[in-house]
Every structure is written in C-alpha cells, then in structure tokens.
Amino acid sequence: MTVTTIDQAAAPTRAAPVTEQTRRPGLRRAGGYLVRILLVLFFAFPLVFMFMSSLKPDDQIFADLSSIKAFLPVGDISLANYTGVFDTVPAARFLANSIAITTVTVLVGLVVNSMAAFALSRMRWRGKTLVLAAIIATLVVPFETFALPLVWWVNKLPWLLFQDGQFFYTTGWLDTYRVQIFPFLANAFSIYLFYSYFQSIPTSLDEAARVDGAGWFRIYRSIVMPLAGPAIATVAILTFLPAWNSYLWPLMVVQTENLRPVMVGVSYFQQLNVLWGQIMAYSTLITIPVLVMFLALQRQFIRSIASAGVKG
Amino acid sequence: MGTLMVSPAMLLLIVFFFIPVGLCFALAFTNARLISPEPATLVGLENFQRLFQDPLFWRSLRNTVYFAVVVVPLQAGFALVLALLVNAKIRGINFFRTLYFVPVVTSIVVVSILWKFMYQSDGLVNNMLQTLTFNVVQGTDWLSNPTAAMPAIMFMSIWQAVGFHMVIWLSGLQTIPGELYEAAELDGADKWQQFRYVTWPGLKATRTFILVTITIAALSLFAQINVMTQGGPLDATSTVVFQAVRVGYGQQETAYASTISLVFFVLVLTVSLVQRYLTRERG
Question: What DSSP string runs through A123-162?
Fold first, then answer.
C-alpha cells in the first residue's frame, strides 16, 4: 500500500500525457532519463563551449566548430587567453569594481531593509499603514520605467566632497561609484520578505526582552536578526544576482573606463575586439563566481527564487 | 523610534524611486535634455505628438509586442514541462534541477555575447544544425537577417530564463496535496485527466504570477538587443526600452525618453491588470 502511495504521489511528475498503460516500466524509466539528459545537454552546451573555447587559440576555436571537438579540451590548450585579457583591457579593475559595488549593495541593503521591516512589523508609529502601502505600491513598477528620468535626476543631486580636510559642495552623481550603489540599497521586495519573515517570529520573545529593559534597537540586533537567517540568505541572494549582473544602469551613468563594472566592461570589450578566445575567457571568469556560489548554496538559491513566487 | 528605523529605507525610496517616477510623468511635458545649460520648459503635448508620428517608435512597439506574444506562452509552457519533469521522485533529480537552472544564474550579457558568437553564419549553431540534420538544414546569418534576428533572440532568451519559471511552477506543484492524485486515481482518472482536473486547477495562483512576470520581463527586453544587434538589421529588433535608451541616453533627449517610458509603463500596467482580471478568483 505504501509503495503504491509513493508512486501515485509521483504521478503528476510524468510530463507527457501518457494515456495507455505501458507494459515495460523499465523501458519507460529509461526513456524518462533519456529526455532529461537531452535537456541537460541543451542547457549546458553553450556554457561548455564557452569554457572550452576560452582555453584555445582563436584559429583552433574556429577549426573545432564543425566537430565534437568544440566541446572538448583538446589541441593547443592553455591559459593564454586568461592572462591575455588582463593585458588587453583593465579586466582586474572591472572585477574589483563589481566586487566592491556588489558587496556594499548587499551588506548595506540587508541592514537598511531589515530595519525598515522591523519597524513595520514590530513597532507602532504614526503613518505606518501609509508607508507599508507605499512600499507595496513600488513592487509593480519596473526599473526601466524610471531609469531615464533617474539619469537626469542623479545628474542634479548634491554631494559633499571631502578633500584636504575640507568639505566641498558639489552636484552631479554621474560617473561615480555611489551612483551605482545608492539607487539599489532600499528595495521594496527585500523589505516585504523581511517583513513577512518577522511576522512569523513570536513577539513573546521581544516582550520578555522589553520587560528586561532592552531597547528596540537591541531587540532588532540581538533577538530578531539572529533568528532571521533564512530571510537574510534569501535577500542576500536576490540582491547579489542583479547587482553583479547589472548592465543597463552602469551603461548610462558611467563613462570612465576605470569605474566600469564587469558586465559593461565585457560588452565594450566584445564590441571593440574580435579576440574571441579572450572574450570567452573573460566571460567565463565573470560567470564562475556566481556559478560556484550557486552550486555551493543551491538549496537556498532555489528556495529564494521560489519565494519570489509568493508575492503573486 | 519606529520612524527612525524606517527612515533610511524610506528616504532612499523617495529619492531613487518616488521622485524619478514622478519625474517620468512631469518631464514628458517638457523639453528637458540630459546635459543642458538652460532649464527645462513646459511644451505641452509636443512629445506625445512627436511620438505618434515617430515610425521608429511604432516599429519598436510592434517588435516588443511580437517578442512578448511569442515568448510568453512558449516560455511558460516549456517551464511547466520542465517543472513536471523535475518534480518526479527519481534518483538524481536534484542534478537535473540544478543543471536546468544554470543559465538563469549566468548574466544575460554573457549569454548574449556567447550566442552572438554562436549565431555567426559559420558559427556553432549552424555547424550543429548541419551535423544533426545530415546537411539538410542550412542555417542563415541569424543576427544579420531581418526575419531571423528576432526569432534567434527569442530562442536564446527562452533558453536563458526558462529555468527561473521552472522553479516557480515547481513550488506551485508542490503545494498540491498528494491525496488529490490518489483520489483521482481511485476514480479511474488517467494521467492526462489527473493533469487536467487536479494539477492545472491547483496551479491557478502560480499561473497568474508566471504570466505577469514573463510578460513584464519580455516587454523590458533590452540587454540582448544592445549586445547583439543594436536594434538592427533594418530596425527589426529595436524595442521600446532600447529606443528609450537610444533617445534618452544616446541623444540626451530626456523629455522624449520619458514619454516613451510612460508608454512602456502603461503597457506593463495594462498587461498585469488584464492578466489579473482574466485569472481572477471566480465565484
């Protein structure tokens, strides 16, 4: 009985609407695996090709295109493209920029958004309903809607410049690091994720702490946040991916080559050169950090993406 | 104290969300330029008149709708098939789930560069087509061919993003209780009937979410175009967002770009409202 139950629970998983009873379940299972493996090849072949090409000189990349060798590490294999790319463009600088921008965006974003969610979930204050409604409203507006007015707007924003022990008042955020960070710190969806997670943490804990004389900030820091691990992981992953991959925004607001993040760097590199081996090497290089992180944390990744589904 | 803790986030949202969204509406009625010594002045509906007479805008709008109309059903359907395939309780299923998802964590810029290389006339795609069909199918120079360029970009875009929606379908599938399938099986329902009467109704909320997110992503098409074709050949792949960037950043005409962005916003809003209405709870 239990055996059939398991089988039935798995029933909806058989994709094809198979109406006739199959007499040979072994054969059918093999067929199922075959389909799934063909799909693996479909999703993996471009990336395997990218990686293998990054190890070959350009003439060999083209020579291998017409055979299975395109996917195999054969022939004149070396890391020459990887060393070469650092001579052709400031690739190390692009990487350092992206690492810095992404790290600051994720870390500061975690603090700012979780504090806002804490205030919304735990504390009573005037205007709370309005603020919550405003935050929810921002979820329906894609960034592309206001990206162009935002370029115009950041060009007019003020900033205090500290130089030689003195503050100077300046305007214009174009061509800076801060313009690549500040617009993405506060995020309505991150606030929403923290908010719904905090709602599930019983308030009895903070009430006990209040009785012991703990302030709100103390409760946030020492009680609620240490319990919010899964929410922190989800928000960190969902902030990390777009920050590392950001393209449209830095393309418009950064002109100086030295301030470019990796994706803008690689797209200019690709427009100005036909060194395909080096292009493939740099593409591999900026993909690997994300891929390694994904493979190490795949459960959290998949869960984070799935949690994006709850807002619908 | 509550206001204090919410204020950093709120201040950032005001400066980098609410004001720019408001500016999008306001600037559309002005002649603002990105870098200009003179302050912007009101010009009424001039930008909207220009928009209606701008063949490149209409072309971009048509291309965008074409992309969305093809990609949304194909990607949603393919993602559902994948979700059903990886929901099975068989050995190694985690391996398949992970592999199907790998393109999603690869940057769309990297993916576009890679496929641009593969789509060349003597590139990997055409070589594979020839080998797999024993030289029956001869490919074209995909991205330089006005009729083939958009389908080529559609194919690549689905390849990259379908894993994301597979995961969302999967989380929807896992909310359907197993007992429902047992009951259906006892009533003599075959696999197709089980899908039709148990799985499909059980995925209602997931369906709305998936349709809305794929549509909005499709309407926002930009990176692929900017990396692969720059809107060409013969404007066959120019899109609304690409056109807004070309005008607002390339030609520095912030006001006209805001007008195009407004159309984009109305498009996105209409689509999500219509889809929510069509898939609303009945009764």
Answer: ---TTHHHHHHHHHHHTTS-HHHHHHHHHHHHTT-EEEEE
Give the closest of A39, A42, A306 to B171, CB-based: A306
Q: How many CB atoms lie within 10 A of CB A60?
A: 17
Q: Is B102 in Cβ contact with A43 (below 8 Å)?
A: yes
Clarify whether residues A98 and A243 are in a common domain: yes
Q: Which B residues, 102 through 161, put their C-beta within 8 Å of a C-beta on chain A?
A: 102-111, 113-118, 122-124, 127, 130-131, 159
CATH number of the domain where residue B210 is located: 1.10.3720.10
Question: Do A58 and A119 fall within a single domain?
Answer: no
Considering the domain boundaries, does residue A115 fall inside one? yes
- When scoring B117, B208, B227 by the number of chain A Cβ atoms within 10 A, the one with the most, hence best to mutate, is B117
Task: List the pLDDT tens digit at each of the 312 positions of chain A.
Answer: 333 333 333 444 444 444 444 456 788 888 889 999 999 999 999 999 999 999 999 999 999 998 898 999 988 899 999 999 998 889 999 999 999 999 999 999 999 999 999 999 988 888 889 999 888 888 888 999 999 999 999 998 988 888 788 888 888 899 999 999 999 999 999 999 999 999 988 888 888 888 888 888 899 998 899 999 989 999 999 899 999 999 999 999 999 999 999 999 999 998 888 899 999 999 999 999 899 989 888 888 888 877 765 543
The complex's ipTM? 0.91
In a domain, B19, yes or no: no
Query: Which residues 15-34 in chain A show a CB within 8 A of chain B?
Result: 15, 17-19, 29, 32-33
Q: Are residues A57 and A126 in the same domain?
A: no
Instruction: Give me the long-range contacts of B16-20 (CB less than 8 A, separation at least 24).
Output: B16/A150, B16/A182, B16/A183, B16/A186, B17/A138, B17/A141, B17/A146, B17/A186, B17/A188, B18/A134, B18/A138, B19/A153, B20/A146, B20/A149, B20/A150, B20/A153
Chain B interface disruption, residue of A3, A38, A144, most B CBs within 10 A: A144
The pTM of the full predicted model, rounded to 2 decimals, is: 0.89
Chain B interface mutation, best of A18, A49, A123, A146, highest count of B Cβ atoms under 10 Å: A146
Contacts of B86 in chain A (CB under 8 A): 13, 36
Residue B233: give the domain boundaries.
54-278
